[in-house]
Amino acid sequence: MKPLCALLVVLAALSVPTACGESDALTKEQYVARLNSMCRDFSRREQQIGDPQTIEDLVADGPRVLDAFEEAIVDEVHRLKAPAEISDQARRIARLADEQEDVLSRLVEAAKRGDFAAVDELAARNAALNRESSAVAGELGATACA
Length: 146
Prior knowledge:
mainly alpha, 0% strand, 5 helices
């Protein structure tokens, strides 16, 4: 085998782990920038829909808010590969997004049923999840999410 070909084979073999995803983690700065972008996207969508103020608003607009949250936040946060230095916070953000998706879904269903007690309870839980995810995002410097 010619030396150049041998070198190319060795380089190709060394690049396999990279191609398979071992080093596809974002830097912390890239991760935070992506989080900020996701949060701005959701905020823009939510502003276009409007913030539900009544049960009727929640029944009418809640499904659209939930869809926007799933598309802008939940789906995207699971696609991000955080660097090791912030992996704990990244896992918390993903877990909180999943929890919030569940709470928002249950909130919309409770509104559709006219279950005011459940709506109050779930709205309070959603607010608590917002505070917690904002705190984690703030720790990372994701100001659009905090």
